[in-house]
Every structure is written in structure tokens, then in C-alpha cells.
């Protein structure tokens, strides 16, 4: 019974989501349930913070690193709930479902972060994915939103099936699904030539690539990001990436180190493809959400460097990067959400004339995404590249910095539209003051963390 | 006077910018910007008086931990190479605010915020003693300059601004990789003073030298990386051009002195001939292209390419006299070209044309304007008694000392320089007054005269007392040559330096 203590916060969060789901059938009050959900998330976070150790035959563990990741996810979820409470255009009757799904996806992600066993990782991923499929198609009457959900679902289930297959193969080759046991069995028997193991590892990498939209497995990303309701897109672009990169990072670093050369080569190829492809594809986008989708693809390409390094230093750099990445993406999607027709590039023409402060905020996020100081985006890139150079990946870092030049071009295009063009399309700010305040505080955070990074780098 | 001069100098413009953010009235915004620019100038002024000229070490040093995890520090300080540039930056900013008083009529608030943020990042580059801090300031500068050109510039401003950003950004990202490599080579430190004591293996030096030099060469700009400059200069608003000419171009040359040379002395020696030749090409090619220009601002922009060629030639002679001349000429060029851009901006405000063919006969019509214009034209040519004469003279001395043909070719640039400036003067000042602009022009007002007076005085002061200025740099430059390069050429030059004192 004692071992249940280690997953108590997750169980509590499940209880919260069920409670909200059931009571939302009778009471329709968005504010009350939002506060309940946020309280539930905060309690879960604090509770996790107080725990330490592992359980269930060391297939699930709580460590400071994972707790930090959990906190990022919890804060992202809280932000998404906060901007949705007044402004998300869904009927009050389905708002309870919306909250329930956000909470269950968080549960899935928390399980992934604690997973030290492929089965637990799979269960967490499936919980997360099923919630996300529904969230993406939440605008029931919008064909784009339905397309987003359906596309994500069809391709996502194939990917998770491949993962399950890969787990089975790895189990066949090593006789275990536990991260550390896999590592031990590989270092003892040197099963490198075993085709079964290689196939299994390839399957795991494919699923990981698919879920984090690594090129060439990214095809679902732009459509899903564009079609999903904007707060969900913001959630989709940040929280699952945090969980996936850290959880699979744990697996790669924890169990594949004895045979690291081959997976490393595969990941290097994937990261180059992703950095180059993501940035080039973003250049010609007319939809801001699609542009941000490809930009997030390219950011994953940079973050892969941290995994390729293959040490916990690399994972720490990814964690730093993810914090910055979450702040600037939530901010940028927040601005898109605040504007009527915010998805259309032309909406931003002459925005500085109509809404100078909003344009200034968006500009800060764009410069941060481009990695120009004094923003948090620069510090994060610097930290990540530092870890990569330390890991002997200087040539990959050169590719990465060259691609940031390309990325500057499309981020600056939005700034140019806002400041250097005349307004062409009618638009207005359609969000509540509360949302405005949230987005503003994120932009201040970008600058503050960019100038005083020791606040969040440990 | 025991206060953190450099930190205050960095902080005051930011405070001003934040205050302006909450203001609505445009006169109030302008006054606030002017007050903070002046305040910053007076705060930085003690550097001039308290600087110890006999020491080559860093002075006014302030060190605080910044990101302890990676051993990055907030470390600032000045030595003989950088101290005058801090003063130049604060002075130029005052000039910029003053010259934009009437010229800026849209998005006034954003404009003055950008000017003040620009000031902080420029000064930050000069005073940083930590590589990460330096790089942060270096890149942060892109944001205000991009907007200054792109929002308040001329008709082709969007193209010019994006070209500026992509050129400079592309130039400097490889420097970022080199900084990371240096960090590990130097034993996990970003400390510039410690890194300049390193003895790196030659092949590593070459790689890093290329990356650093590329970033600086774009900024200077050296031939053939200069193509962004004419566009940026031409399209930028007057204040933007003044900042570009006055300070921004100097950052590249400063980078050579602070990083490329002391960090990678052997690589510098290897590439020395190439860099000298490129400087010569810039001088001569820049001058020939200048002759062909029909646009006032473009003409002065191309003349900058030529003049900056002199600067880099002086630095790459690696002789004490040449390097002193190079640094002095950086300041001279900032003052003189800055003043010329001010003048062009003032006349453009009235006529809204930059075509040289639209002008002519201004001499009888605008006596005060022509007075200043004549003066700064003569200064740009390098008439004895003006500052550019001393700078160019010292650079030529250095060039002849290093290798006689170098000096011989460079003299060609001086002849061409005289030609294009005099010819421009002839076309603008003499002849018949153009009908198109006849009713538009009126002479300079008190604000405009007041803007130009300090620059005029500085031209004369440096022209007659160059020794006062070179004495600030001498200790640091000698130390650089003595510790990093063959010191035989140092001895040669000492009597000459004694003469200019």
C-alpha cells in the first residue's frame, strides 16, 4: 500500500477531473470550475514537490528533475485555463469536459515524466494523446477543427501502435521493459547485432519523432495547430513537448547509453532535417498559427541537440530551453488568440498603429523566438548550444546557428507587418482584460528572465 | 566621485526609455529623452578626467555574478581603447535626440525609446569585460537599429532594414559558436582578460579568428561585406544615420582591437596581408564609387566605406603609430561624418529631396548652413588643423613603416577623397539656386546650430591637440603590441609619437 503514496498526486488529479466532469453535468459555472481545476493542479504540484523516491518495482520515480518538468506542465495548463475562462468560444455546457480533458492530459504527462518503464511511458502517452485528440476538435461546428482532431487521431494512433510494437520487440531482445534493466542487459550481453533490438529502438524513435513532430514525421503538425482552438494549440505546442522530450530523453539517456552510437546517428540526421526543414517551411506561411507550428518544429530540432549529447547535462539544458520555449510560445499564441482573425498574417499589418502596446508585446515574443538578446529565448539557446559544444557537437551547433538566421527572417516578417505596413484588414482585440494582463506579464517575464537568467537556471 | 560610473551610464537610458513608455504628450517625450541623454553624457564625463592615462589595465571595473551556473559575470570596465568611445556614444546620442526634434512626427514615443535603448547597447559593447555580456549587447543592438531604419526610414526602408539585420545577424552567429568553443578552451570562463592570456593552438586560432573577424568585418564594414551600409545609411532617418556613422561602424573596428588581435595573435599575423589589402581596396574602391553617386546620403555612405578602410588599414599595420591613428580616426570619422549626416538631414527636412541635382546655389541663400557645411567638408577632406588630418597622417605613417606600397596606395584614397568632397561642395554650394527648392529653404535655427557646435569644437580640439586624445590610448595600444606582436616596430615609432604630443 505504501507504494501508492508515490503516485498519490496523480491519483488526486484524476479524482479532481472526475469530480469536475460529474458536477459540471448539473452546475454550469465556468469560473467556479476553473478555480477548482487550478486549485487541483496547484495541490498536485505542491504534493509532488514533497515526494521523493520510486515505487512499483522502480517503474515509476519522483526526482527533482521530473518535478520541475511537472511544474512547467502544470503552469502551462493553468495559463491555458486562465485564458480560456472568459474567451474560449465553447458552450458553457461543454466547458466542464474541456477542463476534465486538460486535467487528464496533465495526468498522462505526469506519468510520462515519472516513467522508468516503457509500459508506464506508454500508458502516460496514451492518456495524454486521447485527451488531446478530443481537445483539438473542440470547435464541433468548425470543419478545420474536426480535421485537426481527426488527422491527429488517425496518425497518432498509428504512432502509439508502433511504440507498443517497439516495446514488445525490446522486451523480446532484453527480457525487460525497465529503463535500467534494459541498460544493464545491453551492457552485459552486448546485443548490439540483435535485429530485434534494433527494430525495437527504431520503433521507439519513430514514435518519439512523430509525437514531437520531428521531420519527416511532422505532417500532422501544421493542420492540427491551425485547426485546433488557439488556447488548445498553445497547450499542444508546449505541454506535450515538455513531457515527451523529457520522458523520452530519460529513456534514451537512461537505457541506450551502452549502444549510444547508432541511436545518436539517427537522432543527428533527424535533428538536421528538423532544424533545416522546419525553418525553411516556416518561411512562406500565410497563416500565423502554421508559421508558429513550423517554428515549434524547428525548436524541437534545436532541443534534440540536448538529447544527442546523451548526458544529464544535455537534459538539463533541454529543461531550461523548455521553460523559455513555453513562455514565448504561450505568449505568441496568446496574442494570436486576442486578435480577431489573429491567424491571418494580414491582420498584423499596421498593428503598431492601432494597438501599440499589443504590437510591442508581440515584438518581444518574436525577438525571443528568434533568440535575440536580451530575451529569455537567447539565454535558452545559449545554454543549449553550450551543452552541445561541451558534448562535442560543434558542427551541429553551426548548423543550428545558421538556421537561426533563416528563422530571424520569418519572425521579423511579423514585426515588419506590424510596424512597417499600413493597416489593410479590419481587426480588433476581442479578449478580456484578464487575458491581456496574462499575456503582458509573460512578455515582462521574457525580458526579466532574459536579463537575470540566474532566477531560473540552476 | 565614488560612484559606479559605467553601470549608471548603462542604466540611465533604460530608465529614460521605461519612463517614456508611460507618456503620451510628444513634447514631454522629447524633453525626457533629451534630459536623460544629457544626464547620461554628464554622468559619463568623469571618465575623461579620472581615467589614469599611464595604466594599460582596465579601470572603473565593476564585477558582479550574473549567471553563476556557467560562470558568466556582469563585468564592465574601460581601458585606453574603449574609454573615448563611451564618451563618443553618449555625446552622439545627445546629438541624435536633438537632430530628431522636428524630423520625427509619427510614433514619437517608440522612436525615442529606441534611441535610448540603442545607447545602452552601444555602450554595453564597449565596456563589457565578459564575452557573454558582450555578445548579448552586440546582438541586442539589432532590435532598435532594425526598427529605426524600418519604421522611420525613407521609401525603401523595409528592404534596407531587413538587409541590415540579416547581414549583421549572419555575420555574428558564427561568433557565438566561437565564444562557446573559447569558453571550454579557456577553462570554463567568459572573462575577456583571462581569455586574452591564452595561447591557443594555431588551427583553433584560425577557425575562431575567421568567425570573430567575419562578425566585425560586416559591422565595419570591410570590402566586400559593405553592401548593406549604403542602403541602411540612405534609408535610415537622420538620427539613425548619425548613430550608424558615429558609433555603430566603430564597434567592428573595436572588436578587432579587443578580440581578434589579442585572442588570436598568430592567426592575425597569418591573415594580416589579406586584411591590409582588403582595407586598401575599400579605400580606393569606396572612393571611386563615391564619385559616381547622385544621392547626397548615399554619397556620404560610400565615403564612409572609404574612410573606414583607412581605419582598418591603420589597425592592421600593427604599428603603434598606425593603430593610434586608426583609433583616433574612428573618433574623427564619427564626429565628421555624423555632422555631415546631420547637415544632410537638416536640409532634407526642408526640401524632402536627396538628389544632388536638385541643389545648387545654397551659398548665398543659406549663409549659416554653408558655414558649417564648408567647415565639415574641409574636416572630411583632412585639412591640416582639423581632426581627420591628424588621424590620416598617423595611419599613413604606420602604413609606410609597415610596407611602403601600402602607404603609397592609401595616399590615392586621400586624393580621391578630396575630389569627391570638393566636387559635392561645388554642386551644392555654387551655381544657380534650383527653382524646385527655392521657396522651401530657410537657414538653420538655434537648435540646429547648437547641435552642430559641440561637433565643430571637437573637430578643432582634436585637430590642434591630438596628443591629448592619443595619450588616452597609448598605454593600452603599446601593451597590446608588446605582449602579443613583434615589438620591433614599436621602437621605431616612439619618437614620432613623442612629436604629436
From TrEMBL, chain A:
Chief site of localization = membrane
Q: Which UniProt keywords apply?
A: Cell membrane, Membrane, NAD, Quinone, Translocase, Transmembrane, Transmembrane helix, Transport, Ubiquinone
One short Pfam family name for this protein? Proton_antipo_M
Q: How does it sit in the membrane?
A: Multi-pass membrane protein
Annotated GO MF terms: NADH dehydrogenase (quinone) (non-electrogenic) activity; NADH dehydrogenase (ubiquinone) activity; quinone binding
Q: What is its EC number?
A: 7.1.1.-
Reactions catalysed, semicolon-separated, are: a quinone + NADH + 5 H(+)(in) = a quinol + NAD(+) + 4 H(+)(out)
Q: Which residues cross the membrane?
A: 6-26, 33-50, 65-83, 95-113, 119-140, 152-171, 191-210, 243-261, 267-284, 291-312, 318-337, 357-380, 392-412, 438-457
Enzyme class at the top of the EC tree: translocase
Task: Identify the GO cellular component terms for this protein.
Answer: endomembrane system; plasma membrane
Q: Where's it found, cell-wise?
A: Cell membrane; Endomembrane system; Membrane
Ranges of residues in domain NADH:quinone oxidoreductase/Mrp antiporter transmembrane = 115-404
Provide the assembly information.
NDH-1 is composed of 14 different subunits. Subunits NuoA, H, J, K, L, M, N constitute the membrane sector of the complex.
Family assignment?
Belongs to the complex I subunit 2 family.
Q: What exactly does this protein do?
A: NDH-1 shuttles electrons from NADH, via FMN and iron-sulfur (Fe-S) centers, to quinones in the respiratory chain. The immediate electron acceptor for the enzyme in this species is believed to be ubiquinone. Couples the redox reaction to proton translocation (for every two electrons transferred, four hydrogen ions are translocated across the cytoplasmic membrane), and thus conserves the redox energy in a proton gradient.
Question: Mind telling me what this protein is named?
Answer: NADH-quinone oxidoreductase subunit N
Q: Which gene encodes it?
A: nuoN
TrEMBL record, chain B:
Give me the segments passing through the membrane.
Answer: 6-22, 34-51, 71-99, 111-129, 135-152, 164-186, 206-225, 237-257, 269-288, 300-321, 327-348, 360-383, 403-428, 449-469
Q: Where is the NADH:quinone oxidoreductase/Mrp antiporter transmembrane domain?
A: 128-414
List, in alphabetical order, the GO biological process terms annotated in this UniProt record: ATP synthesis coupled electron transport; electron transport coupled proton transport
Topology class, membrane:
Multi-pass membrane protein
The record ties this protein, via Pfam families, to:
Proton_antipo_M
Which keywords does UniProt give here?
A: Membrane, Transmembrane, Transmembrane helix
A molecular function (GO) term: NADH dehydrogenase (ubiquinone) activity
Cellular component per GO? endomembrane system; membrane
Family named by the database record: Belongs to the complex I subunit 4 family.
* The protein, known as: NADH-quinone oxidoreductase subunit M
